[in-house]
Amino acid sequence: MTMQRVSSLSEFEEMKRLAMERRKLQKRYIATCCGTGCTSAGSRVVVSAFNEIFSKLGLEFEVKTTGCHGFCEQGPIVIVRPEGVFYRMVKPEDVKRIVTKTIMENKIVEELLYVDPLTGKKIVHEAEIPFYKNQGRILLSCNSDLNPTDILDYISIGGYSSLAKVLSGLTPEDVIREIKKSGLRGRGGAGFRTGEKWEIARKQKEELKFIICNADEGDPGAYMDRSVLEGNPHLVIEGMLIGAYAIGASMGYVYVRNEYPLAVKNLTEAIRQAHEYGFLGKNILGSDFNFVIKINRGGGAFVCGEETALMQSVEGRPGDPRPRPPYPAEKGLWEYPTVINNVETWANVPKIIEKGADWFASYGTDGSKGTKIFSLVGKVKNTGLVEVPMGMSIGDLVYKVGGGPKNGNEIKAVQIGGPSGGCIPSELFNLPIDFESLTEAGAMMGSGGLIVMDERTCMVDVARYFLKFLKEESCGKCTPCREGIERMHEILTNITEGKGEREDIQLLEELASVVKDSSLCGLGKTSANPVLTTLRYFRNEYEAHIKNKKCPALVCKELVSYYIDPDKCVGCLLCLKNCPSEAILGENKKIHVILQDKCTKCGTCLEVCPPKVSAVLKVSGEKIVTPEKPIPVQEWKKRNQLERR
Ligand SMILES: Cc1cc2nc3c(=O)[nH]c(=O)nc-3n(C[C@H](O)[C@H](O)[C@H](O)COP(=O)(O)O)c2cc1C
Fold it and tell me: What is the CATH number of domain 22-127?
């Protein structure tokens, strides 16, 4: 198809018809995930191998490079469409078999199929894999069948049709009404009602208004926004266009994290194509609506994701937050009304306009509509990017989508909502995932980080870890946040090192309440969540650390010790030879002894001791009596027998 600028709605309809026809002609093709996760696992080499073999065979067969499919740990992922045959961990040397067996003979390459860890059964089709089957993907589903650098591919699945619908007769007020009716709430953290935000900006009298897409995504381990931008950038652009039309903005920024090169690349290309085809620029689709988008690469600080700090950064100043009100919708960039929304929020907009507010509102709960994308990580069998309807219980997300515990250990909690989210214990796994329920439980939706923790996780250490992150990311502008987080972190560190004191718990609670109530921005206001939720649900662990100097999960280094069980040691020298600090005494066939004052608690002895022997003990809060020096194994056995008599 030749490229052309679309300058009227009828021209757009013609282009859409041609794009859809082109898609129909692609009867059979291969979709290879080339999102960041699969690319790092080698998917680009797999694509080259496919292209090479097809050209050698003289076959005209499309190998579509798509965005992230979500099941990143199984990458590189290859799907044969339209059947949806799902191959995982594909290597270049597997390509020939896929082509000769599946493409040419319609047979399955068994070794490349996904094996369900629960049933042990091989699964052929993507749609039948529990990880996918139990989700509700309305945004991410497009990712696995779309070339993000091909605007026509997007148009062929209905892309830019929502914009055309808006420009063909909806007033800005109609659009705002529809978004309000849908119940869409911001996906960046606070869950503010999107339609209401737009309405405030619409009502402002200024001629100049701005739109911002917040793609800063500073939460450690989170990559929801990255995957949407990488895999479907036109969806975000279309959402921004509709928002700009609704509030009367003519310029938009995407503030994207600097560490997202592929997202920036695909977005840059998408913006270029959108200009070329007439979806961006002047007189869009023949209307009098003008809109352009610029990309602004993030400053690298977590706080730059906070809306007021982000705007300072776009203006070229240090990314420090400022007090609100005035809110950005009234006074934002350079004091002009500005609507700032998260990537996922923008991505929902074209879907709402296309399918209607009622359709969108049919997903979710009374107060939280639609779906939410989470990056599911931690101690579950299936990790990756998941999109679930709001209202799904935490338990269903962990067990049905995540597949339950990874190593047979019991799941203890989830940490939800990013670094300043909270920890929810397994007893509350019936809790629905919606804004209100999570806040009531002391956590928050945040932007979608979800870490599953099992019995080997120390909850005091978890709180310490997140407070360390927040301490380092506090901009330091306001005292409660700067000093308060530092102090809370110090107390938590003391507790994990066995230096905790009785009054520490009360002190933590008091500090948490001050920091929460008096910090300038959301970073400080929410920073106490990890402390308060772990205190609320896992107080016994704090008490064990403080009173008994014991870490029940055996995590806190200063509170654990390693011993060699004399009844089990066979004197094989393995631990002795591997100990990096020469803290083990022993000889062949003599029971080994760990010198407690030399032991650095690195755990190497535990790792190298053969599973059949399992002589190394890791304990906390107790002292094991062992021989003071190595003695022959046989002698120890005899001594024991005598004692027993
Ligand atoms: C410390 C901090 C970091 C934040 N980081 C992000 C971020 O990376 N992405 C995001 O969309 N919102 C982030 N937010 C929330 C934004 O301030 C703002 O509420 C959001 O961009 C509004 O969009 P929404 O209504 O679509 O959620 C952050 C807030 C705080 C306090």
Answer: 3.40.30.10
